[in-house]
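Ops channel
N.P.: pipeline sanity check, posting one input/output pair.
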């Protein structure tokens, strides 16, 4: 499997990402993730919608928590044609507990703990930590990646305004 050394940092320390470096225009790879009810979920389960996929290291960290809560707020403004998925290595039980404790009810949290297909297929698996890097993908209704924001320092939040601008462009196409 392809390795990309120095692809991101954590508090300045370089880390290696495992998997391909996807590009805008690529067909979005499928995945098999587990939802908070321990049911498998694939990309196709959200077919026909624009999918904002937020990859985070762990919901139980301050930055990931803020990011997921912010996307939950933004989801209320997006309409039924958009779904926001937050993917982490957290166990589904922890994701369910975290969502309940933080009132997150519009973002779909999904776990890559079982077979790591998302991390490897999307090239966001951090070799040194076994976690996922902070990356935001937007996949259009046809399953094509239309936007990627790789946050180079994973201890920082993504640029939400840039995500919203990209979503507006995708919707207008």
């Amino acid at each position: 499997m392809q390795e990309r050394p120095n692809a991101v940092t954590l508090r300045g320390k370089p880390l290696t990402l495992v998997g391909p470096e996807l590009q805008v225009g690529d067909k979005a790879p499928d995945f098999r993730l587990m939802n908070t009810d321990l049911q498998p979920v694939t990309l196709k389960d959200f077919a026909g919608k624009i999918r904002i996929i937020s990859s985070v290291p762990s919901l139980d960290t301050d930055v990931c928590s803020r990011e997921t809560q912010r996307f939950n707020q933004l989801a209320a403004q997006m309409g039924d044609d958009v779904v926001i998925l937050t993917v982490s290595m957290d166990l589904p039980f922890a994701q369910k507990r975290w969502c309940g404790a933080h009132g997150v009810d519009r973002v779909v949290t999904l776990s890559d703990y079982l077979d790591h297909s998302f991390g490897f297929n999307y090239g966001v698996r951090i070799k040194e930590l076994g976690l996922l890097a902070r990356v935001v993908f937007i996949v259009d209704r046809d399953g094509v990646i239309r936007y990627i924001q790789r946050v180079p320092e994973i201890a920082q939040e993504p640029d939400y305004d840039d995500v919203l601008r990209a979503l507006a462009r995708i919707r207008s196409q």
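N.P.: looks fine end to end. Helices lie at 62-75, 92-102, 117-121, 160-172.
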